[in-house]
Structures are given as C-alpha cells and as structure tokens.
Amino acid sequence: MSRDRRLIFSRHPRMRGMTVVSLALSACPRLESSGYRLARRNISALAKVRPTGQKNFRKEETPTENDLTIKGKAYIAGIYEHPTRHAPDKSTAQLHAEVAKGAIEDAGLTKDDIDGYFLAGDAPGGLWPMVDYLGLNTRKLRHVDSTETGGCSYLIHLGHAAEAIAAGKCSVALVTLAGKPRTGPMPARAAGAEADFEAAYGATTHNAYGMCAMRHMHDYGTTSEQLAWIKVAASHHAQYNPHAMLKDVVTVEDVINSPMISDPLHRMDCCVVTDGGGAMIVTTPEIAKSLKKPLVRLIGHGEAMKGPRGGKDLDLTYSAGVWSGPRAFEEAGVTPKDIKYASIYDSFTITVLMQLEDLGFCKKGEGGKFVADGNLISGVGKLPFNTDGGGLCSNHPVNRGGMTKILEAVRQLRGEAHPKVQVPNCDLAIAHGTGGLLGVRHAASTCILERV
Amino acid sequence: MAEVKKYPAPVTNPETAPFWEAAKAGKFMIKRCTACGERHYFPRAICPFCFSDKTEWEEASGEATIYTYSLMRKSPTGPYAIAYVTLKEGPSLQTNIVDCDLEKIKIGQKVKLVWKPTDGAPLPFFTAA
After folding, report:
1. Given CB atoms, is A3 within the 8 Å cutoff of chain B?
2. For chain A, what is the total number of helices (H) and then of strands (E)?
3. Are the Cβ atoms of B8 and A314 closer than 8 angstroms?
4. pTM for this structure?
C-alpha cells in the first residue's frame, strides 16, 4: 500500500480495515480537497467508476452489511411534536408518555414493539423510572442510552440508535424529550470540576452566547442587523404553524429595537421558552419499509465536543460543529451544496450563524452576509431553514432544541411540512444542533437525512 | 451594586486546595506543566495538553486583556459583565469585569485582578487596569 493510501486509511477510525472500493465510496467528497488530490490519483480508476462530487453520487450507493458505517442503516419511522407550549396541567413524565405515544402511533407500531429506549437529562429520574413509568416491555427492551449533551442530545441519540440498529442491538428505538420549564421546576445539574472557578460569574445562556456574538462581531464585522435576519426568516415560517408560540412576522428593525438582554443580543435574538416535547421512532430498513410512512433514513452522523481546554488559544467564534459537520457529510457522501433543507439549532440568532459557517454553508466570518436578505426563508432564499418557526418562534421544549430540529427535517423529507414552507422535492436535509453553552462548554451533533 | 453582591464560597477539593490557600494570601496561582511547558487554568493535577502529572503551581501577574464579554442588563443582583480575559501568561479564563464603568468595556482592554471576599477563600475578578 502506498504511503498516501495509508494516510487515508488511518485518518478515520471507521475507515480502518475498509477495502479500497468501500473507501472510495465513502471518502470521495473529501478527496476533492487539495490535501488528498495526490491520494485520489492513486485510485483514479475507481474514481471514474464512481464520479466524485456529483449530485447523484449518493443515489448510486448501495451500502452493504459489512460497511463500517451507519449510512442508510436506520430509518425514522415515527415522529411526534407535542402541540402544547404551556402545560400547567401535566407532569413532565406524562409529557414524555404523550410524545412517546404520538411517535409510536405515527409509525404504526405499538409500545410492545419498542426494544431500545433513548433519553437525556430532561427525563425525570433517568432510565429506571422512565422505563417503568412508560410500561415499556422489559422482556423485550434490550438497549438503553441516556447520553446527555443538552439540547443536541436527541441528535446524538439518533446517531447512537442507528449504531445500535446497525449492530443488531435493537430494532425499534424510541427517543423522547419533554419538560415544562414554564410551569415546573427544572432538574438540577451535577457540578463539574470547574464549578469553584466559574459558578460565581453568572454564566447564563444569554451572556454565554452574547460573548460569542460579541467576539464574532469584533473579528468578522458581523452586525446586529445580519443576526436579525435569522429571526426574521424564522418568523416568516412560524406564521404558518398553528402551534407556534410566536406567529407574528417581524422585521429587522423590530429585532434590533427590542430590548437589549445581554450585549449584543436583543430579546428577539433569543428563542422562546416552552413546555412540551417531542419523540421519534428509529428502526431498521426492513421494518420501516413494512410501515406506511414515507421512508426517511439517516445517511450520515457526527458528534463532537468543545470547551475552553485550560484556556489555551480560546476562540469563541466557532463551535464543535466544525468537527461534527464534516464527519456527517463525509459519511453521507454529500456536501452542504447538496442540502435542500436545513434544521439548524436556534437557541439564539448567533447560534444559527456560527453553525452555518461551521457546517460549511459559507466561509467562516461570512455568515452575516449569508443569512441576510431572506436567504434562509423558504421559497425566497437559497437555504430554507427551520420551516416550523424553529426555537426562535415556534417551540424550544425544556430549553432543548435538538428533537424539534429532527422532527421538522423529517416533515420536510416526507412532504408533510406546511404547503407554504414545504421545499419542493426535498430529498436531502440536515438537522444540526449544539448543547450546553456555546461560549463555555458544549457538544454538537449533525445528522444528514435522506428521503428514499 | 457589585460591592454588596454575595459570592459563593469555593467548595474546594484536594486537587485545588493550594489555589484557594494561595488566594487567601492574595496570590493568584496558575498551573504550568514541566513536561510540555504549557500553562493552564483552572488548575488540574494532570496537564490537559500532554497528560503529564508534572504540573507545578506558578504565581500569575494578574494582568490580562479582555477577549470577549457580554453585559447582562438585568439580573436579581443588577447588571453584570461576564467576560473571558487572557492572562499575560497565556491562558484565558472566565470571570466578571467589576468596579468600573461597565458600559465602557471593550474587547482588547487591559484589566487587572481584584479579589472579592466570600465566606471562604476569595474569588478572582478583573477590573479596568
């Protein structure tokens, strides 16, 4: 094996041990980058058989069972978003049960079909009480996962569910998110090693994201008006969502004239706080095909973490999406240019802008220009985003936006989005989010979804 | 007002106790790894860069520049400015900018360390230099 090929084989754990053929299939988009041009020449014969960088590339692929990838191995067969935004009359566990029931029924399955369950820190008491409370069939339940990465937990759950399904560890996985920050207590979080050194300084979501926006403006000239366009786009979509908390269309002026919360973020740069939740069913290709819903599958997944890391070379202008994104795109064999619809976590406007840059929809520092002038509005701009109104206008259950990002992406791929915001022939979508505090410590996860 | 704000006492633990003992004596300590030479904050026993256990306490000057900040306009204890400052010695850390005109804070501004009392060891904050 040439030195160059070894380079490729060793650079991704999933690729170790792969054949040259499967390597070429999975890694071609990356080979287009200058660093791998030399390597690409070595497999030029294969490259001719499977042209790289073409839109239809992913259509030609037929993943085999032996590929070390989750590509195409798990389908989202059921989705449900709780219509409530204010639930004084319900318990948190009850909301979990209601969204679980909704997703199971949407899939056309029953509770006893569930053999995998995924939840995060919003589920009261974690796995033991939730499995028991829901009455999941414990003779059948054989895979559980309580990965907690804040708002992007559910994007990571989707990837982990696909891994478990690909490995045969479960076949029908339920993922739930629910809670009631408006009408009930929020679960306490255990203190980290940094507590004595940070707790006194009052980091909140507002000022932690504010610090990112402040530095982004300083480094790249990003403006409040550009950030406002993100909220404007979300509001254009929310007007068609009967469940959206904020249905009024707003203007750039409305956003920059709203009260300053934590410089430079205004009230309308911030997402809503809502009770509610959502759930999904992730299953095998065989089971999904036996059901009645349009087929939507996961073809790429990435996850990553970022923090101040001892204070060395602090840079708050990028997120862990710079790592999770390329991992997901590489696995999917597509590029940002191929994406027809984007669900991008919108805890704040700056969250969207930084993530779009980090995912490669535009260059670092050019996010402001990219989001301006309605570029994120469905039917108007080049990248329709958060067509349900997103967290900025519709729903942000338990201050965790990852689940609703997946749900609207699935609606778009099924053709079930509101007709006013449905992207025509939407066959490839991204759902991406971060969890934790972007300006302190956070995780990111990227899912590439395809309609089959 | 920042002067009357009550800050939580550090819980401390065996790994960080020397930092808080030094703080009581007015000394601001960071950690330096003698294996790779990198300094870090907050202090750890094992270097977060090279994973060596050869880390040493080192007194820092308390001089820093503001990397970024955000002024929280309302809170139960009034407005406050969270920030990351970059120490002259290298590491950046989370803090609050206090005891100066918060409306005039700028990225790149020079700041210096001030201690704020708690019921236990004092906590490090920064103010305009």
Report:
1. no
2. 17, 11
3. no
4. 0.87
